[in-house]
Protein backbone atom coordinates (compact mmCIF):
# COMPACT_ATOMS: atom_id res chain seq x y z
CA UNK A 1 0.00 0.00 0.00
CA UNK A 2 1.39 3.39 -0.94
CA UNK A 3 1.78 6.23 1.52
CA UNK A 4 -1.04 8.16 -0.23
CA UNK A 5 -3.39 5.16 -0.09
CA UNK A 6 -2.59 4.63 3.59
CA UNK A 7 -3.14 8.32 4.29
CA UNK A 8 -6.46 8.31 2.42
CA UNK A 9 -7.57 5.19 4.32
CA UNK A 10 -6.65 6.79 7.66
CA UNK A 11 -8.60 9.96 6.80
CA UNK A 12 -11.62 7.91 5.70
CA UNK A 13 -11.46 5.93 8.95
CA UNK A 14 -11.43 9.11 11.07
CA UNK A 15 -14.34 10.62 9.11
CA UNK A 16 -16.37 7.41 9.43
CA UNK A 17 -15.70 7.22 13.17
CA UNK A 18 -16.73 10.87 13.65
CA UNK A 19 -19.89 10.34 11.56
CA UNK A 20 -20.87 7.28 13.62
CA UNK A 21 -20.21 9.10 16.90
CA UNK A 22 -22.32 12.06 15.71
CA UNK A 23 -25.20 9.77 14.72
CA UNK A 24 -25.13 7.92 18.06
CA UNK A 25 -24.92 11.12 20.06
CA UNK A 26 -27.84 12.58 18.10
CA UNK A 27 -29.94 9.55 19.04
CA UNK A 28 -28.99 10.03 22.70
CA UNK A 29 -29.81 13.77 22.54
CA UNK A 30 -33.24 13.11 21.01
CA UNK A 31 -33.96 10.34 23.53
CA UNK A 32 -32.87 12.39 26.53
CA UNK A 33 -34.91 15.42 25.44
CA UNK A 34 -37.89 13.14 24.87
CA UNK A 35 -37.87 11.76 28.40
CA UNK A 36 -37.05 15.10 30.03
CA UNK A 37 -33.53 14.20 31.18
CA UNK A 38 -31.93 16.87 28.99
CA UNK A 39 -33.19 20.44 28.94
CA UNK A 40 -32.13 23.61 27.11
CA UNK A 41 -29.55 25.56 29.12
CA UNK A 42 -28.45 22.52 31.10
CA UNK A 43 -24.74 21.90 31.70
CA UNK A 44 -23.74 18.38 30.74
CA UNK A 45 -19.94 18.03 30.87
CA UNK A 46 -16.68 19.57 29.77
CA UNK A 47 -15.44 17.61 26.78
CA UNK A 48 -13.14 17.47 23.78
CA UNK A 49 -12.30 15.07 21.00
CA UNK A 50 -14.82 12.71 19.42
CA UNK A 51 -17.39 13.09 22.20
CA UNK A 52 -17.43 16.86 21.89
CA UNK A 53 -17.53 16.60 18.11
CA UNK A 54 -20.48 14.19 18.26
CA UNK A 55 -22.40 16.38 20.69
CA UNK A 56 -21.75 19.43 18.52
CA UNK A 57 -22.93 17.67 15.35
CA UNK A 58 -26.05 16.28 17.02
CA UNK A 59 -26.96 19.65 18.51
CA UNK A 60 -26.29 21.51 15.26
CA UNK A 61 -28.49 19.11 13.26
CA UNK A 62 -31.35 19.71 15.72
CA UNK A 63 -30.70 23.50 15.93
CA UNK A 64 -30.01 23.19 19.66
CA UNK A 65 -27.78 26.00 21.05
CA UNK A 66 -24.61 24.50 22.49
CA UNK A 67 -21.51 25.66 24.32
CA UNK A 68 -18.72 23.07 24.50
CA UNK A 69 -15.90 23.66 26.97
CA UNK A 70 -12.61 21.86 27.35
CA UNK A 71 -9.86 21.86 29.94
CA UNK A 72 -6.83 24.15 29.72
CA UNK A 73 -4.59 21.10 29.24
CA UNK A 74 -6.33 20.09 25.97
CA UNK A 75 -4.31 20.45 22.80
CA UNK A 76 -5.03 23.12 20.22
CA UNK A 77 -6.76 20.55 17.96
CA UNK A 78 -9.43 20.08 20.65
CA UNK A 79 -10.38 23.75 20.62
CA UNK A 80 -10.25 24.59 16.92
CA UNK A 81 -13.44 24.44 14.89
Structural account:
The protein has 81 residues and is an all-alpha fold. The chain has one domain. Helix content is 60%, strand content 0%. It contains 3 helices and no strands. It has helices spanning 3-34, 49-61, 76-79. It starts with a helix and ends with a helix. 9% of the residues are buried. The model has no long low-confidence stretch (mean pLDDT 74).
What is the β-strand count?
A: 0
What is the chain-wise order of helices and strands?
Answer: HHH
Return the domain count: 1
- Level of helix content? 55-70%
Principal-axes geometry comes out as elongated
Beta-strand share of residues? under 5%
The largest pleated sheet is described as:
none
Rounded mean pLDDT is 74
Alpha plus pi helix count: 3
Low-confidence stretches: none
Features of the shown structure:
81 residues, mainly alpha, 3 helices, 60% helix, elongated
Describe how the helices and strands are arranged.
Blueprint: H1 3-34, H2 49-61, H3 76-79
Helix pairs in contact: 1-2
Short description, anyone?
The chain has 81 residues and is mostly helical.
Amino acid sequence: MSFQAASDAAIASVLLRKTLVAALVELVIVDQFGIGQLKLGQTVEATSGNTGYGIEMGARKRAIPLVVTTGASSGSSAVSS
